[in-house]
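Journal club side-thread
Mid-discussion, someone asked how the predicted structure for our own chain would compare to the paper's figures. Pasting it here so we can look after the session.
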Amino acid sequence: QVQLVESGGGLVHPGGSLRLSCAASGITFSRYTMGWYRQAPGKQRELVTTITSGGSINYADSVKGRFTISRDNAKNTVDLQMNSLKPEDTAVYYCNALLRDLFSTVNYWGQGTQVTVSS
């Protein structure tokens, strides 16, 4: 059974930092592109950042220079370090695992963790 379990969300003041972590089980973690997405109230889920199995990283423009994604294939974890947080970063953050080849796409989601940035 595949599980992606996020942790580390919470309430933080503007300008503060949080570190999210996602622990994966039930998949060959090193083969997957791992990512973080977020969904604010009344808005669609949006990409925050991804890291491929080879270590290539992509960030949404809105978080470049503030957020950092990293993965540990030995521990089957992917982390998101969030600095200089803004109220507009408030959302539920979801961990994603994606494996795509010529014939199929496999996509898993965590349950989400709430991040609230407020004074």
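Post-session note: The chain has no helices and eleven strands.
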